[in-house]
Write a structure and sequence with these properties.
The protein has 198 residues and is α+β, with helices and mostly antiparallel strands. The protein has 2 domains: 147 residues, Jelly Rolls, CATH 2.60.120; 47 residues. It contains 8 helices and 8 strands. It has a 4-stranded antiparallel sheet. It has a 4-stranded antiparallel sheet with strand order 2-7-4-5. β4 and β5 form a beta hairpin. α7 packs across α8. It is globular, with a radius of gyration of 17 Å. The relative contact order is 0.18.
């Protein structure tokens, strides 16, 4: 059985069954192209979220601090040809739930959440798209949550490596463990098993 995890990990793309061409055009037409150096932040957890955009090069990671331990936990990625932003917090300038940071030198066409909200309100078709995006993201979040129960750490690792074969060059062992919700020791054991063909 194919896990939904592989699909769920893709935030939302133009190939997800939602026609996002108009949104892409908005980002290019009315937005600004911004270059981010590695570790530069697009949004900071706890501060008002402002931006939504289409990644044209590079990738961004999403992190959140643990309530009790204060540690940074990796929660999501946005890669080239995907959208990035803390949606829907950016629509209303609400505090960002995550820090969004460039994992390498990256480029994005971005618009303000305020401009995006105004665009959604222009007509019924665009408002419908707003709802579809919200439903899609809710579905992805639910699938990610469920897959922590229905996939093994090895299956989650394999899916991540298939989707992003070069990701290990940009993430520490701790980052990968955090994203897959396992310990670094578990990742080491998985890699050892792969190396020795187990």
């Amino acid at each position: 059985m194919r896990s939904s995890y592989a699909v769920m990990e893709q935030k939302f793309k133009t190939s997800d069954g939602i026609d996002l061409r108009a949104l892409h055009e908005l980002c290019e037409r009315e937005g600004e192209e911004v270059c981010f150096r590695k570790v530069e932040r697009m949004e900071c957890e706890g501060e008002p979220a402002h931006w939504f955009g289409f990644v044209t090069e590079g990738c961004f990671k999403y992190t959140a601090r643990g309530i009790s331990d204060g540690k940074e936990h990796l929660t999501w990625f946005s890669f080239s040809d995907e959208y990035a932003g803390d949606y829907p917090a950016c629509l209303y300038g609400r505090p960002s739930q995550t820090t969004i940071e460039a994992m390498m030198d990256s480029r994005i066409h971005r618009v303000s959440g305020e401009k995006l909200l105004a665009w959604f309100r222009e007509n019924e078709e665009q408002m419908e798209l707003r709802y579809l995006i919200g439903e899609h993201l809710l579905g992805q979040a639910r699938a990610r949550y469920l897959d922590f129960f229905r996939t093994t750490p090895r299956e989650r690792y394999d899916l991540l490596m298939r989707r992003c074969p070069g990701i290990v060059q940009h993430l520490t062992l701790q980052d990968i463990a955090s994203f897959l919700n396992v310990t670094p020791k578990t990742i080491s054991m998985i890699r050892r098993d792969i190396t020795f063909g187990q």
